[in-house]
Amino acid sequence: MTAATSVVVTALALVALLIAGLHLRGVARVFVVAQVAYWSLSYVARPIVLLWVLPEPQFADSLADPRLATMGYDKGIAEVLKPVMFGLWFYVALVVAYVIWQRSRGAVPRSPLAPTADPDFFRGLAVVYVLGLGGRFVSWATGSAGSAGEVTSANPLLDFAATMATVGALGIIVFARPATWQRTTVLLGFLLGMELVWTVIVESKTPVMGAALAVAVRFAFIGWTRATVLGVAGISVTAIGAFGLLQALKVDPETEAISALAEASYPASVQPFLPILRRFDLLEAATDAYFMNGREWISHLDVVRNAVLNFIPSQILGAEKFQSGTAWAQQVRGSSVDMRTVSVSLAEGNVSEGFVLGGYTGVAVSMTFTFVMVLVAVRMLTARHFVLVVLGLTLIEYPVLFERGILGTTESLGKSLQLAILVWIVTLVVGEYGRQSRAVPPPTRFDYPDIDSRRKGSPSWV
């Protein structure tokens, strides 16, 4: 099978997944459609560009993989996409089976979202968002804001505080219902703009992509119209286009000159899309898995053990936890690329992680896990307890449903659980303060200045 044929088969799988996903109900439809868009950029758009241009690997060009170039792009991409094709078609089968089951149950009445019934819910989100903005500002002012691929944060406490802004923003985007469309537009525009600014500061696509996905989840709850579909599509395209433009503003002249030299080998029609294509790097992860040549990464027992330990805070565990992104960079990519002088955390991808851990059986297990997490995210967003709702919001923010495997997903959920508990505590404090301020004090005699006039003949001391 040639690379072109592999790309076509991969594209057909994604088309089938899109059709199946559009038949899902509610928020699950949004997640599956987002997966199609995400995986299309990684497994279709990126290979097409490589096969079209056949770029020579050079400094500052992360798109041209030297391993594929050495093999020959045609042969290399054809081999790398084999487990990807299997994984995507297996995922299509899962979604189709779920659609059939869902449709067999008939129409399910839509119930009101539990969090919106609590008056303290939005007050808590607002406080969390303001506190998070403070953390972001201090991180930016002190130069400790993280960046994409960092192994550790310069200041974990500020990083944790900054993440609170993400939870607050996504919660307001998904659940807030202003009285007029003008207020809704202003609110969503402000929150999306702030997430785009933070995306540029931390050099990561995650904040703005999470915000765009949150807008789609919002309309999945309240209903879609042609205007909202076009609006969400416009927001996504604008976010992708603005990401590259705003990112260029931060680059110093020397780095800009080096990047321009690397991009000169690509056609002018492709160059505007290079910044975003470089961010969707699951093809590199699939290449990492292929070059492992069946060598063992970690045992199945280690996978289960580390997945469980990911939910225990490091302070309680008393030991450093397994970091799957860092281990992937050092041990999996490091088996075919010299990573001795590079310290970075990578997205392993569900297909690639499954293939390294258990071949095609591992791919099936990993893709099943990803689909189960989609259903779990839907249930969390409609849960009655605030902690579960916050966990659902973090599943919108962190791209675990798109670019992480079992280990990366449990790792993110473990961090999210600590954040959710903290946000819940903040909300409880805000709610208690509100109840205390609204409490009416018991009446005293000073509340009745005419009491003496109503008690004629009473002694003067009454």
Automatic annotation (TrEMBL):
Keywords on record: Membrane, Transmembrane, Transmembrane helix
Keyword Transmembrane: yes
Superkingdom, natural source: Bacteria
Membrane found in the keyword field: yes
Transmembrane segment boundaries: 6-24, 36-54, 80-101, 121-140, 160-177, 229-249, 355-378, 385-401, 413-431
UniProt-recorded name of the protein: O-antigen polysaccharide polymerase Wzy
Species, as recorded: Rhodococcoides corynebacterioides
Organism classification: Bacteria, Bacillati, Actinomycetota, Actinomycetes, Mycobacteriales
